[in-house]
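Before a colleague's protein record goes any further, I have to sign it off. Alongside the sequence sits a line of tokens, each denoting a local backbone shape. I want your independent view on whether this chain really folds as the tokens say. Where you disagree with what is written, explain briefly why. This is what I was given:
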Amino acid sequence: MSTLQQILVVDDDADIREVLRIQLESKGYSVSEAANGSDAVAAVTDNPDIDLIILDIMMPGLSGTDACTQIRRISSAPVMFLTAKSKESDKTEAYENGGDDYLVKPFSQAELLMKVRSLLRRYVVYKGKGTPLFNSSEIRLQDLMIDTAGHFVYRENQKIELTDTEFQVLMYLVKNIGKAKDAQAIYEGVWNDKFLPSSANTVMVHILKLRKKLELDFNNPTIIRTVWGKGYQIDEA
């Protein structure tokens, strides 16, 4: 098995795939390719060790967002959408379908590599491939058990599937338990990127998705509370 970090590049444009392959391989990554959404799902199914998927949205047949939805059933590896669609609603849809980051074409090589490094760094740490953030691999949170090594959350032995970024947001709040964190702190702490006005919406979408998955009563959250005027907080047990 290769020790290189593995990246799957998915785009129906062969020239874009070639450019991405050259840029990523020059930095030491192992790169595989898929020309459409269906092939991407098949590639992730065949190779569970893929560490990152770079996924175009507008492709014939199975779109990137639909492919991401299917990939999320079999993999928690981060997905970075690469697309010409730049509206805020497009980004929200991408995140709601399981995406972790978003890069608009045309893009610079420096920006691409910065996002790739950030996503991979977070993923390998939380998957137990790097230095663990906690001494214990299990964290109890009310009636939840967080498996920090396996990147899973359980309630009464039922596994709750989280995307990579959802897990990052949860762990950021757990690491800061008892402290309210606003959208800027969460975004800069999880995405490792400059906070922009649109970034607040990105954080809000992920908090809402986490609540839908973790809270027993979504309308009355007790795990991730909103502290008005301050942000979001997980309380000590």
Q: What stands out?
A: The longest helix spans residues 109-126. Helices lie at 14-25, 37-46, 64-71, 88-96, 109-126, 164-175, 183-190, 199-214. The chain has a mean pLDDT of 85.
